[in-house]
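Let's practice the habit of predicting before peeking. Look at the sequence and jot down your guess about where helices and strands might fall. Then scroll down.
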Amino acid sequence: MASWVMIFAAFFFSFLLFRLRAVEWPPNGLPPLPLAIPVVLTAIIVLSSVTFRVAIQAMRRRESERFSMFLRGTLILGTTFFALQSYYWWTMWEGGLRLTDGVYGAFFYFLTAFHAVHVFVALILLAWLSRDSRLLAVGRYEKSRVRLVEMFWHFVGVAWLITFGLVYLI
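Done guessing? Here is the structure:
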């Protein structure tokens, strides 16, 4: 987890260096990034962290049905996040924003795609947990497995909040 934090921090710091040195942002001729979809994405990722937290509480109380339901809810929200992010990239690409549009375009695609790769990995882990979710509320090993995935999912959520703040608000 620490290595992921350091990698994301390095990318965020690099972005800030370029962004704060820029005389004009977005650069002349490039439109500002629309906020509607990223705000919805932020709400989805925050809600997915809440549903995962509720799933963990259900696991601790050995409520396997409730655990399974909220774990699947987290998976659905995460999948929705990934799909909506993909749609947003497509609309930005169709609107003319390219990787070749200097630091502005490159960092937009790089930071959001790097985050999306982590979301995708987390979705695989959530699907893996969901497959055996009725059994997971039982033993110590299974609880550890769930808690590690939970930590990764919350990390992905925090990484998005920082990405959102940097890319869309600053």
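How did you do? The chain has a mean pLDDT of 90.
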